[in-house]
Amino acid sequence: MLRKPLLFLTLSSIMAGFTPADAAHSPVAGLDTTSFVMPVYSELALGAVKPKGWLLHQLQLMRDGTTGHLDEVHDKIKKDNGWLGGKGDGWEETPYWLDGAVPLAYLLQDKTLTDKVLQYINWTLDHQRPSGYFGPLTKAEREKNISIDVSNSDQGEDWWPKMVMLKVLQQYYTATHDVRVIPFMTRYFNYQRQVLKTCPLGKWTEWATSRGSENVLVVQWLYRIIKDDKLLELAALIEGQAFPWTTWLGNRSWVMEAAAQQNDEHWMRRHGVNVAMALKDPALNYQRTKNKRYLDSLQTGFHDLMTLHGLPMGIFSADEDLHGNGPTQGTELCAIVESMFSLEEIISITGDPRYMEALERMTFNALPTQTTDDYNAKQYFQIANQVQVKRGVFNFSLPFDRQMNNVFGLRSGYTCCTANMHQGWTKFTTHLWYGTRNNGLAALTYSPNEITAKVGKNNTEITIQEVTAYPFDEQIHFNISTKKSVAFPLELRIPEWCTEATVSLNGQPLRKEKGGRIITIDRTWDHNDQLTLQLPMEVRTSNWGRNSRTVERGPLVYALKLAEQWEKGRDEAEGDYYSVFPRGDWNYGLLEKAIKAPAQYLTVTKVKPVSDQFVWNLDHAPIAITTTAKKIPGWKIVEDVAPQPVTDRNGIYKGAVDDKEEIITLVPYGCTKVRIVAFPVVR
Prior knowledge:
By secondary structure, this protein is α+β, with helices and mostly antiparallel strands. The protein has 23 helices and 26 strands. The strands form five sheets. Strands 17, 18, 19, 22, 23, 24, 25 and 26 form an eight-stranded mixed sheet that branches. It has a seven-stranded antiparallel sheet with strand order 2-9-10-11-16-13-14. Strands 1-7-8-12-15 form a five-stranded mixed sheet. The chain is globular.
């Protein structure tokens, strides 16, 4: 493996494939290349942040499960892989897997996994065509003994999977500074800039057209390194050929039409994973142009999306299409991990705290529930009010004939999620910290970790241990290690849900801060300084689709605790799978008095500490909330789902309700597999 600091790259190698004459033939007339906006927060190199505590254990489970072994258990990747020169998978699933497996390898510093993923990276880097084209050998190359170049570019293959592999190489480069990567990308983007005129994004599939922002992301990342204006021309060219997501997000009619129409007309515009990737599109346009109306489009579009399609666990419905905000709708696992990554990029570019809130909510709630403890099986679609996990049609826009979209399995539903689910926790870990413009650090989402970085005007190396049981606990310690005193700004996010946070330094109160903001502590830091952030977590309720109510505490939402009965099955086409059924009644309504006075009627109990062996399941749930509720006898399963009881405008269910009040227990949503999270309200 070649490792060399970026600063030793030669200008000639960086600029390979670009000639001065190219500047006179811009594909985008009048492009202003002086308006590029550097990110508010810079992403750190892969490996700078190291997971600790429960987060480390989560990544270790992934390494021991499918993230570390997918190429051994999933035939599409295992057999004669195209990304290793074979005739097998040459499309998205291998790059999808690497997009999570590569950061996992470097986060855990695991040599076995690193050696495994390097096979694919090295083959890709070493088999780039002289023209700049890359990827598995095409059908034409095999049969006609040709090499894809500009003159025969129509014999190439889909742009889309290359977009994913570019993201893999980007991460790999930040971890290793392999000197091959920058010239490789430079040559490919030069090829792409020439060829897109005759072989546009949509020549082979609409997936490339709908996901052009993934391509733009890496183009603009490379621009920040080599500052070649032709890269911005390419980014604008790609944007012009891709779906106009920024326009759609900003003009409001698109998201309303997606709520109203569930037919096969323009379904790619409603496809949940396409939408998840597209969230970053306005931010990328703003980065390239400095036009703040793009940020307005982002704000409007995200607000409208979550208003019309949002679910309590922090993600929008995507089963596979956007499908409204009813608690019986599903969400695809790919939509969650892609939304997370989009938000991580949006946070970097904009620095807007609202997207940090959204990232934590979907990460700590929607993400963990959709995989098994050993990370060997996943659900294609989860449901908010999921009273059973089984084969069936449910209320999905794409149920599939085999009815396998809701069960847990390696190959159940489409296997895109089998390959793509691995980026969620890994990229979240790498984005726990960002660099600031004045050579400081920013902790914008929280989990146990350790960061090593160079800060201050003299680039002094420091290590900060972030010690916490967050998101379950209210306290976060930042323990600083440095060989000498160093002045630098440390930025911290005070979550919106926090009424008032307390910041202490070395056991002494430093300041109090209101929620929903970023604070800066700019001082000279000494070895063994400890900064403590106290974030009181009050119990509250929120309103969701069909006048339902959800209980929240801090960044977590809480769901009815239901004992689980797991049953194993097998489908001839999709293999082994698991169904999960509740052991106990689920048809409860929350009492109106608990909604009006949650602090009085919802009791929080710390059941057990969050150990380093924590797993997101009922046995390990560290927090419980108890309250009284009443059963709704008429609330029953209809066609596999539990249709939400109808309430009046005051949010009260008017049908028959049991007189008896019963004590129910709520636990973190992410620890459940069957549950009610969006409750009707009764008197």
